[in-house]
Structures are given as structure tokens and as C-alpha cells.
Amino acid sequence: MPVPAIVPHMNVHGEAIPMNEPVSAIPGNIVKTFTYGNSTVHICDDYMVKTPEENQKIWDEYNRIARAIWRAAAERSELVQAYYAAETEEEKEALVPALLEAGWRVVKK
User: Fold this and answer.
1) Rounded to an integer, what distance in angstroms lies between the CA atom of residue 2 and that of residue 25?
2) Could you state, in order of their start, the residue ranges of all structural domains in the chain?
3) Which superkingdom is the protein from (predicted)?
């Protein structure tokens, strides 16, 4: 049975501000602050200082990435559906390399 491969958890993706920094050190115009337990989230409205063309480029990039993610998810889903639809063990075994390449781990029952 195919199951998602274990991906190591990463706490920080990209640039992070150390927790001991004062709020004044956070770049951007903070418009709202939320506190959840020991965590504080600052919402900035910096996108407003961009031109409409810059905002459109951001949305275009966002849409390009989202389409790629959906396409990859659909391909992975098709592989799993084909695996479960296979009527013989030989058909299932033929799909195992593609499942492994797509990031799935195949566990025998």
C-alpha cells in the first residue's frame, strides 16, 4: 500500500527574525498583532506600497506555483489510483518504481 514518504520537519523556511528582537526591528508596517499562547503573529500591509504591475507579477507567480502543485498532486493521485485498480500483483509490482520515484513508500500487506 503506498503511503507518503516521511519528510523532515523544517522550522524555518527563508528569513526569520529572532524571537528576542523588539517589534521595531520587524520590517514592514504592522497593522494587526495576534497572540496564540507563547507565539505572536504580526500582520503587515507592505503589499500596498507596490505598484499594480508588481502586485500582478506576485499573483502570476503564485498562480504558476499553485498550478504546479495541483498538477503534481494529480499525477501522484493517478499513480495511487492505478496501483489500487491493478487486478494482479504483477501489475502492482510494475507500478512500484513510479510510485517510489513520485515520493511514495510502498508497504506490502
Assistant:
1) 46
2) 50-104
3) Bacteria
